[in-house]
Q: What sequence folds into this?
């Protein structure tokens, strides 16, 4: 599936560090109650929030970026972009400054989006009205706990690259292991991982795991 087939009529494209970032920016259709910024994790993209956008965009402005290297955004290599948490926080800061520099924000944060969004919130506490956190963390592993085997595998030198970038096991494993109550349709599963269709386009997926 081509990326252009996945673009929505609310898509915008921002310049972030010389890269092209895709952002859904949906204006409310009724009286506005504020702004929701939804930040996805790994290995997802703005498509993950499609139902929340459809529901909340009646009353909220919904801003949903695709991280650089993810979704419909540019997919540079290591020479073109530093794939680190610090840079991701700076990117989110840049997006909000360009699109919504005024007023309070409600952050909806999932997985790596939690760490990125909370990093932004620490820097801009006065702007944060609410935080909604889903399947994320803001602390080190408790004593005696280890990373799941799938994460340890993808962090293993050479073998991790083969698994995550060569065989796409991280994306496919997420579809298999991370859907516990409601199964996605085959079409939605295909769309969710469509942007990650080659070794080159899976670099951000792998770098997120390495950056844990």
A:
């Amino acid at each position: 599936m081509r990326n252009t087939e996945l673009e929505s009529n609310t898509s915008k494209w921002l310049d972030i560090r010389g890269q092209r970032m895709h952002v859904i920016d949906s204006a409310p259709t009724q009286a506005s109650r504020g702004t929701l910024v939804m930040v996805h994790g790994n290995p997802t993209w703005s498509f993950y929030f499609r139902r929340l956008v459809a529901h909340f965009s009646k009353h909220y402005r919904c801003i949903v970026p695709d991280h650089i290297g993810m979704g419909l955004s540019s997919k540079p290599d290591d020479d073109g972009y530093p794939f680190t948490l610090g840079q991701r926080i700076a990117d989110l800061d840049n997006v909000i400054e360009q699109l919504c520099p005024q007023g309070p924000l409600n952050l909806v944060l999932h997985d790596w989006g939690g760490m990125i969004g909370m990093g932004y919130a620490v820097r801009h506490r006065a702007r944060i009205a609410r935080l909604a956190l889903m399947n994320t963390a803001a602390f080190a592993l408790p004593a005696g706990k280890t990373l799941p085997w799938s994460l340890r595998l993808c962090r293993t030198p050479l073998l991790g690259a083969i698994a995550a970038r060569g065989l796409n096991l991280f994306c496919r494993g997420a579809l298999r292991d991370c859907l516990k109550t409601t199964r996605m349709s085959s079409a939605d599963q295909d769309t969710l991982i469509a942007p990650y269709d080659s070794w080159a386009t899976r670099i951000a997926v792998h770098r997120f795991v390495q950056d844990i």
